[in-house]
Amino acid sequence: KTTDKLFKPFNKQTERIDLDYRVKTSNPEVRHIQVNAVVKYKNKKPAKSHGIIIDITAQKENEIELYEKNQELEQFARIVSHDLLTPLNSVIGFADLLKEKFASLPQSREFQYTNKILESSTRMKTLITELLEYSHIDGIKKLERIECNEIVEEVVTDLDSIVKKTDCKIKYDSLPVIEGCRINISRLFENLISNSIKFRKQNSTPEIVIKGRESANFFEFSVEDNGTGIGEDDINEIFKVFKRAENSEKVAGYGIGLAACKKIVNDHGGDIWVISTQGKGSTFYFTIKK
């Protein structure tokens, strides 16, 4: 395979070759080989070459094992989360009935205990639901043409209740058309927009500005808000599962939303980061590979 490519006629003076392929040894055993070489041509014929040939069998085996382990973990998370929700819904249902029974006695221990059961089980349900959604981000199975203006419009409509309640102002215009997984790109924008609304400043109208531009190899987007901002110590932690900023104690959630954003962006060959000033707001940037 390498030889075939080396001796193909090229019009260029220099050609770089990067190949991964399998070879069968006399054992017989299959080995994974990587070739990195530069070939110099003269009169369209190879005249000189230099490079390296590496046996990457162990690396490939580790990659396959890691992929299989990740698949097992995601499958485990889906099964456990789903199986936990069924009995939990029963607990919530019966606790709700008990709360109604003792509604006329709001100061009684029975009412207060029932209310605590209901609050705790509802928080657990939220956590399990978020974990289930995170485990469902399986990468890109099918690329679709996505009108980002259309996606953001749908997300804002879905968030209509909280948008109206907070009198949030959301501005966006002429966002790029990209290719990707529609449901995950929608989830990405929803998480970032709802996150900006959650971390709004008290007695202040939340404002969100969404921009997008096209570069040579990527589409770059930004979601800017005038919220509470993020401290320097939290900047590198907030994209990890269950990691939350110090100023998030009074905000509902379990630190899964931004981890999901990172997973979605990485699946699309991009990156995500944030620039923030505490007390002034944050701008989340992410890229999507063309």
Automatic annotation (TrEMBL):
Pfam families: HATPase_c, HisKA. The keyword Transferase applies. GO terms for molecular function: phosphorelay sensor kinase activity. Its EC number is 2.7.13.3. It catalyses: ATP + protein L-histidine = ADP + protein N-phospho-L-histidine. Keywords: Kinase, Phosphoprotein, Transferase. It is an enzyme of class 2 (transferase). InterPro entries: HATPase_C_sf, HATPase_dom, His_kinase_dom, HisK_dim/P_dom, HisK_dim/P_sf, Sensor_kinase/Photoreceptor, Sig_transdc_His_kin-like_C. Residues 79-290 form the Histidine kinase domain. This is histidine kinase. It comes from Bacteroides faecichinchillae.
